[in-house]
Amino acid sequence: MFHSLDAAATGMAAQETKLDTIANNLANADTAGYKRQDAEFEDLLYQTIRAPAVNGGVTAPTGVQVGTGARVVATPRSFAQGTVQQTGKPLDLAIEGNGFFAVHRENGDIAYTRAGQLKLDAQGRLTTSDGLVVEPPITVPTDAASVTVGSDGMVTAQRAGQTTPVQIGQLQLVTFANPTGLNALGHNLYSASSASGEPASGVPGTEGRGTLMQGGLEGSNVEVVTEMIGLIRAQRTYEINSKVIAAADEMLRDATQMR
Questions:
Q1: Domain enclosing residue 185, as ranges
Q2: Using an 8 Å Cβ cutoff, are 72 and 41 in contact?
Q3: Which of 4, 91, 110, 123 places its Cα 20 to 30 Å from the Cα of 147?
Q4: Does residue 38 sit in the same domain as residue 124?
């Protein structure tokens, strides 16, 4: 049986995964803070028919090895900066540079996000669009006429009847030694893993952390044109692998019909 049948099948499966990542990227082209994924491939084990070795006093410069195909080895994310879009909303915060907002999940765990579409809950606490409270918690007074967030994360409120703004909290950003090792949870959230390293929380603008920009949102870093090019390449590669299977099938049919 031709090894090309199995090898081409693994190539088709790998391109299906590639297509899945492209589809997800395009679906999230307008998702705030989304980071695009890519598919990385590696070749599979080889069948060694003859290894390079000394044979009869002659050293063979090369051997004979037949590959068994390819597979997807990783789907890393690119944490390159997305385009910052001006919204004018005082609770929209864009991270310019490295870092994540920390939020409390319903089960008590801490998750991390780049999406800065913050809201106020019934208690006046800063939350995400899903209602997850930002860590450390910051409560805006009910009589606050306006809220200002500095590039360093300092949150001040202008209260009714007062001329001097009052500090109500300090937003922090969390960085990781290897952000590509974070686990994606959906809902614009990530969780730490052994591959990402321990979270390091601190004031924006310090120790390599980014700064905050009020009234803006970091958009997705997906480039639609780039994804479309990748889509065409994946489609053509899938098509070529399917033709390999068709050719191998035809050759097998010819072999079985020989008399």
A1: 84-216
A2: yes
A3: 110
A4: no
